[in-house]
Write a structure and sequence with these properties.
Helix 8 packs antiparallel against helix 13, helix 13 packs antiparallel against helix 14 and helix 16 runs antiparallel to helix 21. The strands form 6 sheets. Strands 12, 13, 14, 15, 16, 17, 18 and 19 form an 8-stranded antiparallel β-sheet that branches. Strands 5-6-10-8-9 form a 5-stranded antiparallel β-sheet. Strand 18 and strand 19 form a beta hairpin. The two termini are 39 Å apart. 33% of the residues lie in helices and 20% in strands. The protein has 5 domains: 94 residues, Uridine Diphospho-n-acetylenolpyruvylglucosamine Reductase, domain 2; 115 residues, Uridine Diphospho-n-acetylenolpyruvylglucosamine Reductase, domain 3 (2-Layer Sandwich), CATH 3.30.465.10; 112 residues, 2-Layer Sandwich (Alpha-Beta Plaits), CATH 3.30.70; 137 residues, Alpha-Beta Plaits (2-Layer Sandwich); 197 residues, Uridine Diphospho-n-acetylenolpyruvylglucosamine Reductase, domain 3 (2-Layer Sandwich), CATH 3.30.465.10. It is an alpha+beta fold and 678 residues long.
Length: 678
């Protein structure tokens, strides 16, 4: 058997060698060992490493692997913290780091076109020459790549104002696991398929080229450094800033240990200091900077901040930021191993969740940094340990589980920006019910038939764990009744025409029955501190906007006589994808699917929320959605999508994954997907 496997491996490497050159394939033990790990605790030796030197080589290589049913794991800088860059099935690691060309910088259309191996900071440096920047700026940006950032949906400090990776990608050229080339964009007609590839952790194929949104660097900025005598005071200041409706460019927090490790001669830290906040605001309007500075200063003073420093000089500001950006590297210098248990909670839950996490760490007498993208509720406990000590490592794993549970109990997510990978794979069952997990599995299978693209990542292999009790709203009685109605229709194979106010229906197809969102119009959750609102899909847009205005809040939706659900399903403007955080939906068999929550960041599972935008009721019945809101009157600029027809086999397969029997809006199926096969 071993001899047969060796012959097969030799045959495959010969085929691949004809494409990439035999010098670019490594099957020796040393190279296999070098590519057996990333920045996590996960280890797994691949059967070999394929070094891609030209983007045009990706497709033929994947075709060969697909034909032989051999798995592959895309890899770039290997900075993954959850085991995502290791091949768990003994297949190949595909090293894409040589694909590092910045192909185009288009300041007319605000787009940069890059290969996946471009290092984030290199792109930033090049853009700065033109007076532009790319918003996602993960702490690992000196080494992490754009392709890796896309795979993990990376954020960073300034994503608080400008959004994470999924908010800043406009188009992707991808190679699917079977070697098929495809292009998806935010302008496509039908479901937002592009968004499935962001945060997919390489499980759906390889990104060949990315088209990124770039922005002009604002004329003015101000960095505010502040110290606090307790972490509680600092967290309360964060909560007060968000509650006030201020959305800084960045709002970062560090506890005492992080400060001790990273402090430099440039900053004198008081012995009383237990926490530091680094806040940055920017604008093209100096008056706005001054106004927000005064409001933030007042909040800091109310929370006993001291040693407050201001800088509008780039070099001086970089000295202040060094304290935050060097936390992980500084810890790495003194630690054999570091566990970073990334998660996110609603901002209204941040203060209490931080207290609970700190208690867990203290109770187990562990040494750990607490650092946060505090403005969006993203927590990064960085725990020091030595994996050579088996007892300590086992204790660390127990603590990690307890921390993940706290995120979920608070209504949060087990992964904000570091991915699920291998380390958190099983714990997806704590956050999602089995029906939702099964939907993720069907999506994976729809795009990756043989399940060879980075296998055993992101999705649980078994169903051994149960969903935990999570802080979330109850579904209404009307939605419960709708679930039962859809189950009845499914049993009788009755097709449904999903609609809101029925104003756009000219004639009812003969074999369809109306399924209207009119009975579901509740406001389910209005979180002033988190700047979010959750509403049922049948609520009229005017009613929602009027409610918020009465509460002195705003939502960036156009004036429209229709419903919230209709606006989402029809993708009436491109920017709606950046407003929605999560949603609930019912599938055609009556399965209730709850996606995410009211978290500003969430990279657990596939991004079905964005996929549903533009789906025209063909995938599921949207029952509710959670939106970002603001205390400021929005600068409304609503751009209609180009609605580019993009018929691919993937669209049809995704339709099958959601609605195998074509019972939802079947009269639109051919228009959206080109054809339909059961």
């Amino acid at each position: 058997m071993l001899e047969e496997e060796e012959k097969k491996l030799f045959s495959i490497t010969q085929e691949i060698g004809e494409v990439v050159g035999v010098e670019n394939i490594s099957i020796d033990d040393l190279n296999r060992s070098l590519y057996s790990y990333d920045a996590s605790m996960i280890r797994a030796k691949p059967c070999g490493v394929i070094h891609i030197k030209k983007a045009s080589d990706i497709q033929p290589v994947l075709k060969i692997l697909y034909n032989h049913s051999v798995s592959f794991t895309p890899r770039l800088a290997g900075t993954n913290l959850s085991g995502g860059a290791t091949n768990q099935k003994g297949g190949f690691v595909i090293n894409l780091s040589a694909l590092n060309r910045i192909i185009q910088i288009d300041t007319t259309n605000n787009i940069a076109v890059v290969e996946p191996g471009v290092v984030n900071i290199k792109l930033q440096e090049e853009l700065e020459k033109f007076g532009y920047f790319y918003p996602p700026d993960p702490s690992s940006q000196k080494v992490s790549t754009i392709g890796g950032n896309i795979g993990e949906n990376a954020g960073g400090p300034q994503c608080l104002k400008y959004g994470v990776t999924s908010n800043n990608v406009v188009k992707l050229d991808v190679i699917l696991p079977d070697g098929t080339e495809a292009t998806y964009s935010i302008e496509d007609y039908g479901p937002d398929i592009m968004s499935l590839f962001i945060a997919s952790e390489g499980t759906l194929g390889i990104v060949k080229k990315a088209y990124l949104k770039i922005l002009p660097i604002p004329k003015y900025f101000l960095t505010i450094y502040s110290e606090f005598k307790s972490l509680d005071d600092a967290m309360q200041a964060v909560a007060d800033i968000i509650k006030q409706g201020i959305v800084p460019k960045s709002l970062e927090a560090l506890d005492r240990l992080a400060i001790e490790l990273t402090k430099t001669k440039d900053i004198e830290i008081s012995d009383e200091t237990q926490a530091v906040l680094i806040t940055e605001i920017d604008s093209d309007d100096k008056r706005e900077i001054d106004k927000e500075q005064n409001e933030i200063l007042k909040i800091f003073n109310n929370n006993s901040a001291f040693n407050i420093k201001f800088s509008d000089d780039k070099k001086e500001s970089e000295k202040l930021w060094k304290l935050r950006k060097e936390t992980y590297p500084s810890l790495a210098k003194i630690a054999n191993n570091i566990l970073v248990e990334d998660g996110c909670v609603p901002r209204s839950e941040l203060v209490n969740t931080v207290k609970k996490i700190k208690k867990i760490i203290d109770d187990h007498r562990l040494k750990a940094n607490l650092v946060f993208h505090a403005g969006d509720g993203n927590i990064h406990p960085q725990i020091v340990f030595d994996e050579r000590d088996v007892k300590e490592t086992n204790r660390i794993r127990r603590v990690a589980k307890d921390i993940l549970k706290e995120y979920i109990y608070s209504g949060g997510t087990i992964s904000a920006e570091h991915g699920v990978g291998v380390e958190k794979r099983a714990f997806m069952l704590w956050q999602y019910d089995k029906k939702t997990i099964d939907l993720f599995r069907r999506i994976k299978k729809a795009i990756d038939k043989k399940e060879i693209s980075n296998p055993y990542k992101k999705i649980p292999i078994t169903n051994d764990l149960k969903k935990l009790k999570r802080k979330e709203f109850e579904i209404s009685d009307n939605v419960k009744a709708m679930i039962e109605e859809i189950k009845t229709r499914h049993s009788k194979k009755i097709r449904s025409l999903i609609c809101g106010k029925q104003t756009s229906i000219k004639t009812l197809p003969a074999d369809h029955s109306i399924l209207s969102s009119a009975p579901i119009q509740k406001i389910l959750d209005f979180d002033r501190e988190n700047l979010t609102i959750t509403v049922e899909s049948g609520i009229e847009i005017k009613k929602l906007k009027d409610f918020l205005i009465n509460e002195e809040f705003y939502i960036s939706l156009p004036d429209d006589n229709g419903t919230v659900g209709g606006m989402i399903a029809e993708k009436r403007f491109v920017g709606i994808r950046d407003l929605i955080l999560s949603m609930d939906l019912i599938l055609s068999d009556g399965s209730f699917i709850r996606l995410g929550g009211k978290n500003i960041k969430d990279t657990s599972g596939y991004d079905i929320t964005k996929l549903m935008i533009g789906s025209l009721g063909t995938l599921g019945f949207i029952t509710s959605a959670t939106f970002k809101i603001s205390k400021k009157i929005p600068d409304n600029k609503f751009t209609k999508p180009a609605n580019i027809t993009n018929y691919t086999s993937i669209g049809i397969r995704i339709k099958n994954a959601f609605d195998r029997e074509n019972l939802f809006n079947a009269f639109l199926t051919e228009k959206v997907y080109g054809r339909y096969e059961i």
